[in-house]
């Protein structure tokens, strides 16, 4: 036999074998599917999945009762006004924030203080109209206003949502920590308040089951 | 004197059973909501009591204090009658259900059943069939399209599934040579019926799911397409009665499955008190019901009918023939 002939025969045998193997495995697949169908393999898979989920960690954050989310420091929450090193308000009442504000919710009235500096006599933000875009923070040339992490300031009256200068100065500033779930307590004694004790919490995303 | 004591005992047993069955839905709703929550990575009720344990009590108070609303166009008599008709049969059935042989209290042997009927199985199927009247009347009397559709569906579903259910237990009766539930359990002291009657068990359990109107066969109250089906118009305590009846039927189907196919109070390997074995098995089946509920979607109506008539009925008939040939 010539070498070419041998090669031909070998190739033929190889093809045949692989074809029969493919047919065989196809038949096995089909039989397996039928056996699975007869014994409800798909239903059993579903049951196994839900059973697995039953013993995985719940992703619930028990918000007002026990836990609370601390937003990341990049979060845009309630505004606050900053003070400089001498404790003087940083705002120079240039009204750029009021100009750039897309909802026109900032009202600034300037005055001249005893040192001759331009300062705001009135600085009001109507948080009911604010859309928390952060443009005021970007526009401010004196780095005087910023959006903090506080997000619980719902109210029964939209009049209460107009925040004046002194209240804005008293608001909590930005914390460098955040992005975690901390233990909290719902207090309803005077006002509804969710008190958080610790500054750093666990990462909520660890509870997510990824398979 | 003997008679008085015997009568008193029966009255006591009946009262105890009714109290247990009426209170049983409370922990079961809690359990169902907890299981639902955890299967969906939630927590379920957490706020009332420890881990929400008092939630069913709060729900009960809410249902009791709600307005008892009757639609203007409703048939008032049937509307009021329906919840009672739905509630009574599952309770009556429990009169024939044994929970064990005997238990000795203060030296007296007390039987753990109210009555040992020699045709208990027939009685059970006859009475449980009456439950459908409550559902049909409720849907009809409310005079609302959703309710009528729901009760029509229930009607067809009950008829379709009671036939295979009845046929499925014939194999069990053949094995035990008796229709008394007590004798059926005694006949399983060595090997449980599920070993001899796997097809029978399968048909019975699937038909039981349909009978209890649980997912995947809860077309009577399919909340996705029918509002709440037959009890759309019910509120307050009448709605609660329907819920109680639903849970009691679920317990009943679990109990029947255990008695007919899983050896009743006969234990294996671990020597536990027979009553405890019985309750553990029933609890497992109740869990299975809930597990199914939060895993499977609802069947379409034509699929439901096809499964009943084209799969379960032939299977149950085949089961009778096979059992007849093999065990005769």
From TrEMBL, chain A:
Swiss-Prot/TrEMBL keywords: 4Fe-4S, Cell membrane, Iron, Iron-sulfur, Membrane, Metal-binding, NAD, Oxidoreductase, Quinone, Repeat, Translocase, Transmembrane, Transmembrane helix, Ubiquinone
Main location: membrane
PROSITE patterns: 4FE4S_FER_1, 4FE4S_FER_2
InterPro entries in the cross-refs: 4Fe4S_Fe-S-bd (IPR017896), 4Fe4S_Fe_S_CS (IPR017900), NADH_quinone_OxRdtase_chainI (IPR010226)
Compartment annotation: Cell membrane
Record text on subunit structure and interactions: NDH-1 is composed of 14 different subunits. Subunits NuoA, H, J, K, L, M, N constitute the membrane sector of the complex.
Name used for this protein in its record: NADH-quinone oxidoreductase subunit I
Organism, as annotated: Sinorhizobium medicae
Lineage: Bacteria, Pseudomonadati, Pseudomonadota, Alphaproteobacteria, Hyphomicrobiales
UniProtKB/TrEMBL annotation, chain B:
UniProt EC number: 7.1.1.-
Keywords from the UniProt entry: Cell inner membrane, Cell membrane, Membrane, NAD, Oxidoreductase, Plasmid, Quinone, Translocase, Transmembrane, Transmembrane helix, Ubiquinone
Reaction catalysed by this enzyme: a quinone + NADH + 5 H(+)(in) = a quinol + NAD(+) + 4 H(+)(out)
Gene Ontology BP term (one): aerobic respiration
Entry-linked PANTHER family: NADH DEHYDROGENASE SUBUNIT 1, NADH-UBIQUINONE OXIDOREDUCTASE CHAIN 1
Subunit structure as annotated in this protein's UniProt entry: NDH-1 is composed of 14 different subunits. Subunits NuoA, H, J, K, L, M, N constitute the membrane sector of the complex.
Protein name: NADH-quinone oxidoreductase subunit H
Organism name: Sinorhizobium medicae (strain WSM419)
Organism lineage string: Bacteria, Pseudomonadati, Pseudomonadota, Alphaproteobacteria, Hyphomicrobiales
